Amino acid sequence: MILRVDAAPQAPVRRFGRSQKWVHRATAALMGVCVVTAAALYVPQFAELVGRRELVVRIHEWAGLALPVPVLIGLASRAFRADLGFLNRFGPHDRVWLRAALHRDKRRSSRPAGKFNAGQKVYASWIAGATLVMLGTGLLMWFTHLTPIQWRTSATFVHDWLALTIGIVLAGHIGMALGDPEARRGLRTGSVSREWAEREHPLWRP
To answer: How confident is the model at residue 9 (pLDDT cuts 50, 70, 90)?
Structure first.
């Protein structure tokens, strides 16, 4: 008689600490408020349902003004600063990852990644820049008495169209997250399975 001995499950890998999780959740909540209030301001059907336009405007303004705050507070955390360093550093393997993504090459071997893959790095850089532009144009629209009308008109144009672009990009971001339960688990609990880490981020050394 042969006894089968199953291999012991590998211990989960720590991916995010408390600071990273808090910054992501707080930023996501503020961004969600901005998106919902923007929809209530610009989509007639939503505007009719919500009403109280002045209140919605104030909530939208203050949520937008607060958007950078979680990241600024997070800078006090060494772990969060380390993750920002990873996100801000592109290497040769990131170019390989992007090339494979553009050619729709889904082989894992063709998409090398460290703690963050190239797609996540591009998204983080883009959304950070877009948030700053939205903040700047929003302030120009808010303090109307401080700027000439040409500036306010241009700021409104940029703010509105960039908001639409952000909405589309966020929808894609959420869709990607919904398709990867293990990645969501990492943001929810801070840990991921070692198998997932080795498969999706083979260059990461936790």
So the answer is: low
**37 three-class SS:** helix
Short-list 139, 136, 105, 99, CA closest to 119: 99
Cβ atoms of 24 and 73 closer than 8 Å = no
Cβ 32 vs Cβ 25: under 8 Å: no
Report the CATH number that the domain containing residue 126 is assigned in CATH. 1.20.950.20
Residue 206 lies in a domain: no
| DSSP state string for 93-151 | HHHHHHHHHHTT---GGG---SSS-HHHHHHHHHHHHHHHHHHHHHHHHH-GGGS-HHH
For range 47-75, the mean pLDDT: 89
Which residue matches tokens 């104030």? 58
Query: pTM for this one?
Result: 0.86
Return phi, psi of residue 116, to 5°. -125, 140
Residue 7 covered by a domain: no
Residue 194 lies in a domain: yes
Domain with 182 in it: 14-200
Contact 197, 13 (CB under 8 A): yes
Domain count, the chain: 1
pLDDT one-digit tens code per residue, 98-149: 999 888 887 777 789 999 999 999 999 999 999 999 999 999 988 877 778 8
* Inside any domain, residue 8: no
